[in-house]
Amino acid sequence: MRPAAATEKQLPAIKALVFDVYGTCVDYWSTIVSQGEAISRKLGVEIDWQMVTREWAAYPPSFTAILQGKRAWESFAALRRASLEEILRRHGISGLGVDDIDEIDAIWLRLQPWADTRPGLQRLKNSFLLATLGNADMADIVRLVKANSLPFDAILTAELARSVKPDPKVYALAPQFLALQPDEIMMVACHKVDLHGARAAGLRTAFVSRPAELGPIGKLDTSVDEQFDLNCGSFEELASLMGA
Predict the structure, then answer these.
(1) 82 shares a domain with 142
(2) What is the DSSP string of 18-86?
(3) How far is CA 224 from CA 95, 162, 233, in A?
(4) CATH number, domain at 214?
(5) Distance between CA atoms of 82 and 71, rounded to whole angstroms?
(6) What is the pLDDT of residues 165-217, one digit of tens each?
(7) Beta bridge partners of 16
(8) Structural domains of the chain, count
């Protein structure tokens, strides 16, 4: 995927890149399905893991309620656990004890990176500050980054703003904690709504296409969007476009 025509213009001096994590850096679909199927085999319980993953990973209504001020902020971990338990109830999935549900929920701490994630980040790290900036709890992302040896310089998440993206308060964390101007920071994500929020907050933007994010039958908009400063198909292509 080539950069959009808008990227022919000279970018300002980018000093840091901040990354969405779930979907952009790590492949939650394949990890949840494969590890969920392994848990099913161990327990002897039949579960449609593609269905569970599709519903569990969907943008929860609770996020919208928080953004609209109709619901108090809760940690992503709490919302994720509540969503899992609701899916299991709704589909009549039984035979799971509390420890089993704990093990399923903890898959989010073991999500596997895309093949290009680690090498692309390593190249970018040579020239830029790198930080996470996702809708997640700090503790969860610290553990996920450590488990996968991802070379981030800083961990930032929406928990610090007690909100969720695309709330401007979340994007404001990057210039605040990295001591940079917004246009010196580039937001990297595979979700266009995230990048539109970052752009409105004054950050530069890079769209990375992840066509397999929602599994084999998922439908995603992976088209080039000239509103973003860069459009690419991998972190390694991003590194090349950034001259790293």
Answers:
(1) no
(2) EE--BTTTEEHHHHHHHHHHHHHHHHT----HHHHHHHHSS--HHHHHHHTTSS----HHHHHHHHHHH
(3) 45, 32, 10
(4) 3.40.50.1000
(5) 15
(6) 999 999 999 999 999 999 999 999 999 999 999 999 999 999 999 999 988 87
(7) 129, 185
(8) 2
Q: Are strands 230-232 and 204-208 parallel, antiparallel or unpaired?
A: parallel
Q: Is the dihedral of CA 79, 80, 82, 83 positive or negative?
A: positive
Residue 114: Cβ within 10 Å count:
20
Q: For 83-110, write each residue's pLDDT tens digit.
A: 999 999 999 998 899 999 999 999 999 9
Same domain? For 56 and 81 the reply is yes
Is 131 in the same domain as 228? yes
In the structure encoding, which two tokens stand for residue 63, read together? 């996020």
Write out the residue range of the structural domain in which residue 96 sits: 28-109
CA-nearest of 32, 34, 36 to 46 is 36
pTM of the model: 0.92
